[in-house]
Design goal:
Helices cover 35% and strands 18% of the residues. It contains 23 helices and 35 strands.
């Protein structure tokens, strides 16, 4: 056995200061001194080759040669490419760090690029791998030119770019590297459980492939309450997800949740529940690849194991090993454990979560035959084992936990909505019966849910199934449970799981960030947006500079606790409350209409076409409104090609795709109206908005061309355009802004109600080529409308609705959502005055690609 413990020059730090590098197959924790203190190779569940984080041996460090420096760093957007940054007494030094992508299941490639950003740069480099949690020293070390090779236990190692390194006393290699000003120096470390390729990878090509892979794998999310953090959460989950589909619950093991309490576990495995959380969160944002990988992994495991489904597997679908101790000191305050006792448990709620995941995939038309079979299998298991005690979400003693059964109720309801009518009715009836059973033995006298039949305590986990539809939003048990959780389990904007004993909150364990984000979602669902936003902001700030969230947070010491990063916490950060959709739908329903909220990315023609299938539920669409947009406030030279492409796809091609979907349905009927929402910038471009102005000009030309074609063909389908002035919406908060000051609209600024009335008037009077909001119209229109703006608008429109009008609006912001729903209210008002008309059916669909559901949304 070899010596243990971190090298003296690389002491351990608090967990919030470690960054994660990951490629899906394994991860590295990087400390403030540029030290790799944790890495299992070749895969997540393999033995560690660098284990200093839990008291083992092994280190790989790139650190400033000057002894005095301060540390910082950041992730490149949408990736786990980390930039270590040090400020010394004389200069700034950066080191770009990543695991090469796409990841190989057998070979890890760690890339480190030392950047001389501030004059000639000197760094010290140390490499001392110790495979088997520190048991194996490097052996058969040799150098050929600039490349070192070695064996370390069962592993093969090759280190390129360190030709000047020398043997280090005590083991390993060391070097001092000088990088000329404006240049860089690359180090490439390969670790594999099989012989390496003949030649090491070229660093330039490896970096290019890695950057391109992250750009491809991580979508450019927009319209969330925190776009940057939402995209980062997606990147973290992608980094934890293997090519076999399994997502590691965390990158580490044995990090204490509470000092000297014995609560430290091995989380390097794929929990079915966590995988379902991540898939559902992604599905709420769009049909992105992590949804498909989650569905494939969970489907395979359900079909393979059925009623014997384990709560967790290795990321490649294998069994989790039994828990055992290692002969290591552990992270301070903890102890060393490998394996996990979860492999002996039954967790009923995993089947309910699986049903919700599969139903979410079906909603995006991403569920194949195997997925439907897995759904049927999960329902059958709930029928067969739903009455058995289980370990529950917190993996405690076996009881008939209310959370587990209510999760199954929510899952059955989601599955029923996605299934054929007869099968759905049967599953819905089963959900009702199961809910009756839970109500009988787990409804607290106060009207809230309680943990279990013999345990009347409150549990924050009970918010989850209520949030997912186990009971209707208006059911009194929903707000009662929320209020009890807030009153009994919250402190300073953080949420605890439950009260384990009579001690004050915080003494037994830390606040659970998963529960804090859940509270934000639950408050948002109840329409308490301001409170929800506070909870969301409080919990998303519970991290260090790398922005990695753990399971627990010590609010007294303001420190993260437990394994890092915790995948399901990042999933709950990503899970979005679709405020614009929900608010518009509520307005329509309160007016007596029928609302169908359909999230869609208008830059994807397939999603737009799917949204247009609202006709199946509501009947023919009479009015289609295109209004989605996004933008970048910047000089032309500061806008990237990808950003220009995105603005064009959303703000111009979104209109094209929407019009295609509308005409596909309207032309055969020879009836219908399309309203294009334009802008004064369609006629006069302004500086600092070149991408947006270009898109609006394109819409104007497209509109005029299409209108001429329809007139020539003597079609009764009408297309008109409404040119907008500056409108008071949240766009100036959520649009990318590279200006030195916050952007604001040019005066005069109109309220969204004015815009909505303009759209409504145009929909009722589509004969004109265009209308302007905020300026006078021609004499004929003035007879009905004096000025479309802040004055009394579209008075003549009231009482002139076409019979059975159906409105489909593809839009982009929360205020616009509310404003367009006001247009719906106007239609409803008219119908109440003319009861002989058929009641209108209204479908309002808003895009994820720019939905500013923004500042009001409680979750991202």
């Amino acid at each position: 056995m070899t010596s243990r413990g971190p090298a003296p020059e690389f002491p351990l730090h608090v967990l919030s200061e470690y960054a994660l590098l990951a490629d899906g197959e394994r991860g590295i924790m990087v400390g403030p001194r540029g030290d790799f203190v944790w890495m299992c190779a070749p895969r997540w569940d393999s033995d560690a080759v660098f284990s200093a984080l839990i008291g083992g041996a092994g280190v790989y460090a790139v650190t400033p040669a000057e002894p005095s420096f301060v540390w910082g760093g950041y992730y490149e957007p949408g990736s786990l490419i980390w930039r270590s940054r040090w400020v010394t007494t004389s200069q700034v030094i950066e080191c770009r760090e990543a695991l090469a992508m796409p990841g190989d299941p057998y070979t890890a490639v760690a890339l480190r690029r030392i950047l001389a950003v501030d004059g000639d740069t000197r760094v010290r480099v140390f490499l001392d791998p110790r495979a088997g949690f520190g048991h194996h020293r490097p052996r058969r070390i040799s150098r050929q030119g600039d490349v070192w090779t070695a064996r370390c236990g069962p592993l093969y190692l090759r280190w390129s770019g360190a030709g000047t390194a020398t043997r280090r006393t005590g083991g390993g290699l060391q070097a001092t590297i000088t990088v000329p000003a404006g240049s860089h120096h690359d180090l490439v470390l390969e670790i594999s459980d099989r012989p390496l390729a003949a030649e090491p990878p070229g660093p330039d090509q490896a970096w290019a492939s890695t950057s391109a892979a992250w750009d491809t794998e991580v979508p450019k999310l927009s319209g969330t309450i925190a776009d940057r953090d939402a995209r980062h959460a997606y990147a973290v989950m992608r980094g934890l997800t293997s090519s076999a589909g399994g997502m590691a619950a965390a990158a580490t093991m044995s990090l204490p949740e509470r000092a000297e309490e014995g609560r430290n576990y091995d989380y390097r495995y794929a929990w079915i529940r966590d995988q379902c959380f991540s898939g559902q969160a992604v599905a709420a944002t769009g049909p992105y690849p992590l949804l498909d990988t989650a569905v494939a992994f969970v489907t395979e495991r359900i079909l393979a194991d059925g009623p014997q489904l384990k709560p967790a597997y290795t990321t490649r679908g294998g069994p989790v090993p039994d828990e055992r101790q290692l002969d290591l000191p552990g992270y301070p305050g903890g102890s060393d454990k490998v394996g996990n006792w979860v492999n002996k448990q039954f967790q009923l709620d995993a089947f309910g979560e699986a049903l919700m995941l599969l139903a979410a995939a079906a909603g995006h038309d991403r569920l194949d035959r195997d997925g439907w079979q897995a759904m049927e299998t999960a329902v059958a298991v709930i029928r067969a084992r739903g009455g058995e005690p289980d370990a529950g979400i917190w993996e405690l003693d076996e009881q008939r936990w209310a959370h587990s059964r209510l999760t199954c109720v929510a899952g059955l309801r989601a599955a029923a909505a996605a299934a054929p009518a007869a099968q759905g009715a049967a599953w819905s009836g089963f959900a009702d019966a199961l809910l009756t059973e839970v109500t009988a033995d787990c409804l607290h006298p106060s009207g809230r849910w309680q943990r279990a039949p013999g345990d009347d305590r409150m549990d924050a986990a009970l918010l989850l199934p209520v949030l997912r539809g186990a009971v209707p939003l208006a059911d009194p048990r929903a707000p009662a449970t929320l209020e009890a959780a807030r009153a009994e389990l919250s402190c300073e904007g953080y949420m605890y799981r439950f009260r384990p004993d009579d001690r004050p909150l915080g003494q037994a364990e830390g606040a659970f960030l998963l529960c804090g984000f859940t509270m934000a979602l639950a408050l948002h669902q109840q329409g308490r947006e301001v409170e929800a936003a506070r909870w969301f902001e409080r919990n998303r700030a519970a991290c260090g500079p790398p922005g990695l969230l753990t399971e627990e947070y010590d609010i007294t010491q303001r420190q993260v606790r437990g394994n890092a990063p915790q995948a399901f916490v990042h999933a709950l950060l990503l899970a979005r409350g679709e405020t614009g959709l929900d608010a518009a739908a509520r307005d329509v329903e309160q007016a007596g209409g029928v609302a169908l909220a359909i999230p869609a990315d208008v830059a994807d023609p397939d999603q737009v076409e799917a949204a247009a299938q609202a006709e199946t539920a509501l009947g023919p669409i009479d009015v289609w409104v295109n209004v989605a947009f996004t933008s970048v406030f910047a000089q032309f030279t500061d806008i990237s090609p990808a950003e220009y492409k995105r603005v064009t796809e959303v703000s111009y091609l979104g209109y094209v795709y929407g019009t295609m979907a509308a005409l596909k349905r309207m032309l055969p009927r020879d009836a219908g109206t399309i309203v294009q929402v334009g802008s004064a910038l369609a006629y006069r471009g302004i500086p600092l908005q070149s991408a947006y102005c270009g898109a609006k000009h394109a819409i104007q030309g497209f509109h005029e061309s299409l209108r001429c074609e329809l007139l020539h063909n003597k079609s009764n389908v009408r297309v008109t355009m409404v040119q907008m002035p500056a409108v008071n919406t949240p766009q100036f908060d959520w649009v990318v802004n590279r200006l030195p000051k916050p952007a604001q609209p040019v005066s005069p600024i109109y309220q969204p109600e004015a815009a909505a009335r303009g759209v409504l008037y145009a929909a009722d009077h589509p004969g004109r080529r265009e209308y302007w909001v905020g300026g006078p119209l021609d004499p004929a229109a003035l007879a009905a409308v004096r000025v479309l703006g802040t004055r009394q608008l579209a008075q003549a429109a009231v009482g002139v609705a076409a019979p059975s009008a159906r409105l489909l609006a593809l839009g982009s912001c929360a205020d616009a959502a509310h404003a367009l729903s006001m247009a719906v209210l106007a239609l409803s008002d008219r119908r109440r005055r003319r009861p002989a008309l058929v009641s209108g059916l209204i479908a309002v669909a808003f895009t994820v690609a720019g939905a500013a559901a923004a500042r009001q949304a409680a979750t991202a």
